[in-house]
Write a structure and sequence with these properties.
- The protein is built from 4 helices and 37 strands.
- Helix content is 5%, strand content 57%.
- The chain has 694 residues and is mainly beta.
- It is globular and about 75 Å long.
- It has a single domain, classed as TonB-dependent receptor, beta-barrel domain (Maltoporin, Chain A, Beta Barrel).
- 46% of the residues are buried.
Length: 694
């Protein structure tokens, strides 16, 4: 899928479809659908509608919540090649991804895919064994929205920290074509995309992308490819049909970190990869969607969305490394082989009412998820290699790869959301949601199975007060819930636990000045989370629900036009997160400690220039110190990296851009994989891209 022959074939098909679309008849066009993004407009997009923080398409300034909108143009100008590159430039989001969890973040004091939801076009696959694999790259997406804080009213459990939604480029009847090719950083990449008319009443869009990287470390070979297809057709003047069919494949870098030397990072080991030579990581995702939208009246719209997703994930690696200073050798263990087979079918029926001062959305969501987990537990196997110049060897574990368990999960949710304009200055937003999960687990190794039913309620009440046309104050209280572990991999020990509960109070201000030349937002919040797993104080051998965590903080985001061609963008987040009650093994209290992977301070700064066919950006990213464990016994050092890009419009349709990463060649760790190994951030590198738009 990712080879050059397939990429060329896809490019030819997209080009021909776009050309044929130009000759389609333009009469009796389908209903116009507006896709809200920031497009090429600079700033924070406060006047743009958001479909992530609410189902009522309120503007960012109307919403009593914190939302960042990252447009395709912004991501392109900064040279963001991965979704996580773009997301971590938003306010308060930190990347904690590893080959084991796929893509994962930290936000507002909460971490991982059990607390940060990843969505595409509002569709959310359930998380299997803590792993989420897409969206991975930004090609084919119009914009990415980041909702900070509990989003359970909109998306259900598992969203206490944030919800990240990548919104696809929509089909359009006006033909267009775009392409991109890039080389550098020991990688090559290419993407094509096009849209156009389909008959007299429809439109299509196809986006395809592929890359191949030799990596910035030894044996860092990685591949990635995808095809996204969309069709929109007006069956009648009041009834639209939307179809999507996608295929995505990833073979990420088979790198699980670099061992610490004397407790710190060693530049001498920066390029080393201690995985075995035949290591394997492979993710494959297939998705299909069909949506009917019926405009019953100018005020009432009814839609039904049926979605199917299938994920296959494979790992075969030596994952644990420890440097032995006495022997000057690296000890390897945990020869782990795992396979996930996940299939999810879901349906969402929703009605929206928009008449006068009142806007209401109500719906029912249902899904069935089948998950099979295969592994070689207890993951035996070990070896010792020299720190450099070693033979990596092959995967050799005494434990066979066997099907371990399967789960059958049925989810149901009912929700309602209401935005009421009390007057021209006051908007009241309220929402309620009830989620119910039934999990049936079957052991494939002869152990006992079980059934478990979990449920949660979520609510939100917010008020936005428009002081002036460009200034608003807001406040909200909201609740949410997270599972104590991935629902699809729930085991017998965790089956007796209920979902954790979270409560948030947030207040803020949003303002646009001088016709949008300056925009800024400030948010203050306090989140408390109860029912996390702790040890029983009276019997430390038992695990119970009774732990608690709090998080409070402040977030500032700003975008200012310094002059006609110059714009400064900045954000900063301060997070004070700590455990209120937590007892771990050994009857050790962690009360007052900061949760792992949570920096107290993170910030981004970008200076942009665009004039006379030239564009340039320079930026800095700061991530504060983070602990790797709840005991706060070991920390990943803070780091600052600097990036830049320079673009030149060769013509109206062609842009040549040079992207520079980690300008100072900073040696830093992006996250930890164990107490003896950290995953290193990319070293300094450059990439040259050429982009065509017609």
């Amino acid at each position: 899928m990712t080879d050059s022959k397939h990429s060329r074939s896809i490019a030819v098909i997209v080009s021909l479809l776009c050309a044929s679309g130009a000759f389609a008849q333009q009469g009796d066009e389908m209903q116009t659908v507006t896709v809200q993004g920031t497009s090429s407009n600079p700033g924070l997009g406060l006047t743009r509608q958001s479909g992530t923080a609410s189902r009522l398409n309120l503007t960012a300034q109307e919403l009593p919540a914190s939302v960042d909108i990252l447009s395709a143009d912004t991501m392109q100008a900064r040279g963001d090649l991965l979704v996580k590159d773009a997301v971590t430039r938003s306010t308060g989001l930190t990347d904690i991804s590893s080959p084991g969890n796929g893509v994962a973040y930290s936000a507002r004091g909460f971490t991982g895919n059990g607390s940060i939801a990843l969505l595409e076009n509002g569709q959310r696959p359930q998380v299997g064994s803590g792993t989420a694999t897409y969206p991975a790259d930004p090609w084919g997406y119009d914009y990415i929205e980041v909702l900070r804080g509990p989003g359970s009213v909109v998306y259900g459990s598992g969203t206490t920290g944030a919800a990240i939604n990548a919104v696809r480029k929509a089909p359009g009847r006006n033909s267009s074509f775009e392409a991109m090719a890039g080389i550098g950083g020991e990688a090559v990449r290419a993407g094509v995309g096009g849209t156009g008319a389909l008959g007299e009443h429809g439109a299509f869009r196809i986006d395809a992308y592929a890359d191949h990287s030799d990596g910035l470390i030894d044996r860092g070979d990685a591949r990635h490819g995808k095809v996204l297809t969309s069709v929109r057709y007006a069956l009648t003047p009041d009834l639209d049909l939307d179809l999507q069919l996608d295929h995505l494949e990833q073979k990420p870098q088979r790198y699980f970190g670099t061992p610490l030397v004397n407790g710190g990072l060693s530049r001498a080991l920066r390029d080393q990869n201690y995985d075995v030579s035949d290591a394997d990581i492979h993710f494959a995702d297939d998705k299909a969607l069909a949506r009917l939208t019926w405009r019953y009246s100018p005020a009432l719209t009814i839609s039904n969305e049926l979605a199917y997703m299938k994920a296959r994930r494979n790992w075969r690696n030596a994952e644990y490394y420890h440097y032995d200073a006495t022997a000057n050798a690296v000890e390897r263990s945990d020869y782990i082989a795992i396979h996930h087979d996940q299939e999810q079918t879901g349906n969402r029926l929703e009605a929206r009412w928009n008449d006068g001062a009142n806007r209401v959305a109500a719906g029912w969501e249902a899904a069935v998820i089948n998950f099979v987990h295969t592994n070689n537990s207890p993951y035996g196997g070990s070896s010792t290699v020299a720190p450099t110049g070693f033979d990596p060897g092959v995967f050799d574990s005494p434990d066979p790869l066997l099907p371990n368990f399967s789960t059958h999960t049925v989810t149901n949710a009912l929700y309602v959301e209401d935005a009421y304009s009390i007057n021209d200055s006051l908007l009241l937003l309220a929402g309620l949601r009830h989620d119910r999960y039934k999990v049936d687990r079957v052991s494939l190794l002869g152990a006992a199975g079980f059934s478990s039913t979990l449920q949660a309620n979520a609510a939100r009440l917010g008020l936005t007060w428009k002081l002036a046309a460009d200034t608003s104050l807001y406040g909200q209280v909201s609740t949410g819930s997270d599972p104590v572990t991935s629902l699809l991999s729930l085991n017998l020990a965790n089956s007796r636990y209920k979902l954790t509960s979270a409560r948030q109070v947030e207040a803020g201000v949003k303002q646009s000045l001088a016709g949008g030349k300056a925009e800024w937002t400030v948010a203050l919040y306090h989140i408390s989370k109860d029912d996390i797993i702790t040890r029983d104080p009276s019997n430390p051998a038992l695990s119970v629900q009774g732990g608690s965590q709090t998080s409070r903080g402040a977030e500032v985001t700003a975008s200012v036009a310094l002059a006609q061609a110059w714009r400064l963008e900045a954000n900063a987040a301060y997070t004070d997160a700590q455990f209120g009650q937590l007892i771990e093994s050994g009857n050790l209290s962690r009360a007052g400690n900061r949760p792992s992977d949570v920096p107290k301070v993170s910030a981004n700064l970008w200076l942009n220039y665009r004039d006379h066919g030239w564009r340039a950006s320079a930026g800095a990213r700061y991530v504060g110190e983070r602990f790797i464990d709840n005991a706060n016994s070991q920390a990943i050092p803070a780091y600052t990296t600097f990036d830049a890009s320079l673009g030149w419009n060769y013509s109206r349709n062609v842009l040549v851009q040079l992207n520079l990463r980690n300008l100072t060649d900073k040696l830093y760790a992006s996250t930890s994989y164990s107490d003896s190994q950290y995953l290193l951030g990319d070293r300094r590198h450059a990439e040259l891209t050429v982009q065509w738009r017609y």
